[in-house]
Amino acid sequence: MSYIGQTLGNLASQTAFVNITWGNIIMIGVALIFLYLAIKKDYEPLLLVPISFGMLLVNIYPDIMKEGGLLHYFYLLDEASILPCLIFMGVGAMTDFGPLIANPISFLLGAAAQFGIFGAYFMAILMGFNDKSAAAISIIGGADGPTSIFLAGKLNQTEYMGPIAVAAYSYMSLVPIIQPPIMKFLTTEEERKIKMEQLRPVSKIEKIIFPIVVTIVVTMLLPTTAPLIGMLMLGNLFRESGVVKQLQETASNAMMYIVVILLGTSVGATTSAEAFLKLDTLKIVALGLIAFAVATAAGVLFGKLLNKITGGKINPLIGSAGVSAVPMAARVSQKVGAEADPTNFLLMHAMGPNVAGVIGTAVAAGVFMAIFGVK
What we know:
This protein has 20 helices and no strands. The protein is mainly alpha-helical and 375 residues long. α5 (82-94) runs antiparallel to α10 (145-154), α10 packs antiparallel against α11 (161-173) and α10 (145-154) packs parallel to α20. The radius of gyration is 22 Å and the shape is globular. The mean pLDDT is 89.
């Protein structure tokens, strides 16, 4: 009997129930909410499902993120900035830069949305973060998870990488909830009904030249952006050159999905209760929300300015797509515009600022690295 009792006692002591804390229970609840949003509400499930499941795993079995644990090795790829760069390659392989090439003014709308990043940087400093931490946190304003992880790693802010990444990916997923109220508040119904002229056709040669020129110009000015911009444009060159279809299909499908699994689960696994339930984490989440809201507002307001300058040819709603959540932010611009006028089709017009925002956020990260002398 004593042997049976000892065996049962050993088994009981190995269950997660023995060491689980209230903090772990709270984080498990958060993970379940994220899973609900991903599966039931279809909020960016490709991101939220692996992130929330990693969150679930680490709060039941913390050793999965310790050295020797499976997700620890996934996370090392985040710290080394490998996975974010591969994500950018996949995004490039899936993205049509045609709307941006056809309407170069989209670059300005994408740049305007970066105001949220630099605004968040100064707010973070006021809230007590040091300059490098503030820079890493501020990228959340671009709603760009890979760039947030990339910059946090380059600035040696791995302490905050988990909260930053989770906040960035969460706001990317919640674009359909966060952006529309801001867009409607800042625009009139008449502005939302504005129909834009059809974009001009973009030639194949333009699409091939574009990634090459952007790579040369941006990396000459900010060499530290080469890993992100280079991979983004290489993926796009796979797509537009037409001679490496196998590479384009691999980068945009198999490789992309594998990287999303590794990145998502490892990011989610950084949210153990001990690491996540801190005052600094709450500050980061709040700063990210403010930055994202400011970026959306800045894009819309600049869109209103361009509307005045062009004599009513620009629908201000497309300015909100200047954040990096591709293509979700562009879809939101389309949705809000269609609510005002079901015959209004803004999606392709919004894709210009949307992909410009991806480039703009990478450039913003490069500016911060240049400021701090990171190579």
